[in-house]
Design goal:
Elements (H helix, E strand, L loop, with lengths): L1 E8 L7 E9 L2 E7 L5 E9 L1 E6 L15 H12 L4 H17 L2 E8 L3 H9 L2 E8 L4 H12 L8 E7 L7 H9 L4 E5 L3 H9 L19 H4 L8 E5 L5 H9 L4 E3 L1 H6 L7 H6 L4 E3 L12 H16 L7 H7 L2 H6 L17 E5 L11 H8 L5 E6 L2 E5 L6 H15 L1
Parallel strand pairs: 1-4, 5-6, 6-7, 7-8, 9-10, 10-11, 11-12
Antiparallel strand pairs: 1-2, 2-3, 4-13, 13-14, 14-15
The protein binds zinc ion.
């Protein structure tokens, strides 16, 4: 048995505990209770490992590509540069993504993967993941061929599950979505990310018309309506920015899980997803960092703050998203969105021992008054002391450096910039 205590423990499915410990055995939590353990972290908060509801580990060094360009031009830059890489480059980049995630206290990620490299990298570094292999096709036969080719490269492990990602309703037909959902594995997509998507799908016009060759034919309907026949609790949808009241009701009726990515949506100029309305409709929403292709980092703390800033600004209410509610979006709520809430997302006996320890020493939030606010507003990857997945330490401040991982990933980025 292993036990770890801290000045505060935030189980997230119960009230905060002052000076408390978490004990686990064989990777499973057996006790969460007040009292110090032999190993105690002063000035720190122990909480469930963060669950990232949307990432692309394979884009960890795409930072700044096409920044400030309109959505379709940004996508064009990204695709052109990605073509300069071979699979081994994608793997070294994905390793960096997995390292950055663990360094930010993320213990589980829902990763949409172009090459499958994310699955290999996550398994190697000990990051729990659902890796959704991407397909881009109008014809289910073509999608099947793409999936089989990528699937051959990857293996499921104790930590890594394989799913499939029909990329978006403008790159995949409804028939392809239906085929993906028939496989009985996790399915994730991008949905209603920006206005030009709706414009293309409904009218065949707008900025996306310039690249029409890479998209499926317009459906004559907006993005959510395009997928109306196949919306279901098994289809994880990233973004959902451009959704009106009727579309939110439709998503809720089908219990569609949503990954909310406020930094990505803001930086690409897509907008701000109606988080308050999505939550009020009873939808399962998890927080996602997306990737450095659109956001600066896999820094979940920055994502938490962005979620709070944008929700409060949009609603003009300081209680639109509390620090604790934001933390839930990045832990237990994200686990629910991935249908993993029985095994991860909170600190309670019987769940996997996935934990993150955050130090608030010498921060403006020390001494700690409200541990949730201290973590959300005062936290950063620099303050992550330790990240534990399945009871095993996968990152420890000052000890885990991943120098080789970083230098090989930089070399791959240099190649893209050449
Ligand atoms: Zn994405």
């Amino acid at each position: 048995m292993t036990a770890l205590s801290a000045d505060w423990v935030l189980p997230l499915d119960g009230p905060p505990l002052r000076e408390a410990h978490v004990t686990w055995e064989d990777g499973v939590i057996v006790e969460v209770a007040p009292g110090r353990a032999e190993r105690h972290l002063d000035d720190a908060v122990l909480l469930p490992g963060f669950v990232n509801a949307h990432s692309h580990l394979e884009y960890s060094v795409y930072a700044g590509f096409g920044d400030g360009l309109p959505f379709s031009a940004w996508l064009g830059t990204h695709i052109t540069r990605k073509r300069k890489l071979v699979y081994d480059d994608m793997l070294v980049i994905a390793r960096r993504g997995a390292a950055d995630s663990l360094g930010s206290g993320i213990t589980t990620t829902a990763d949409y993967s172009f090459s499958g490299a994310s699955a290999v990298a996550a398994a190697e570094l000990g990051l729990r993941a659902i890796v959704y292999l991407e397909v881009f096709a109008g014809d289910p036969g073509v999608a099947e061929g793409q999936f089989e080719a990528t699937r051959e490269r990857v293996a499921e492990t104790d930590l890594v599950r394989i799913g499939i990602s029909p990329h978006a309703p403008y790159t995949c037909s409804v028939e392809v979505y239906r085929w993906c959902l028939s496989l009985g594995i996790p399915v994730g997509t991008h949905l209603a990310e920006n206005g030009s998507e709706n414009e293309w799908l409904e009218h065949g016009t707008g900025p996306m018309a310039a690249n029409s060759a890479i998209f499926v034919a317009p459906s004559g309907k907006r993005a959510v309506a395009t997928l109306a026949d196949i919306l279901c609790p098994e289809l994880l949808c990233a973004h959902c920015v451009e959704v009106d009241a009727g579309e939110i009701a439709l998503l809720a009726e089908h219990d569609v899980p949503i990954a909310h990515c406020p930094r990505s949506n803001a930086l690409l100029g897509c907008g701000a997803a109606p988080l308050a309305e999505l939550l009020a409709a009873g939808l399962r929403v998890g927080l996602g960092t997306d990737s450095p292709a659109s956001t600066p980092s896999f820094d979940i703390f920055e994502e938490l703050r962005a979620a709070v800033y944008i929700a409060r600004a949009r609603e003009r209410r300081p209680d639109a998203l509390t620090a604790e509610a934001a933390l839930r979006l990045a832990t237990i709520d994200a686990a629910r969105a991935l249908s993993l809430e029985a095994s991860i997302g909170s600190l309670s006996p019987g769940k996997q021992a996935d934990l993150t320890a955050v130090s608030l020493a010498e921060s403006p939030y020390h001494p700690i008054e409200d541990p949730a606010a201290a973590v959300v507003f005062g936290g950063s990857p620099d303050r992550v002391l330790e990240t534990i997945v399945n009871g095993q330490t996968r990152y420890r401040q000052g000890e885990t450096a991943w120098q080789e991982v970083r230098s090989t990933a930089s070399a791959a980025r240099r190649q893209m910039l050449a």
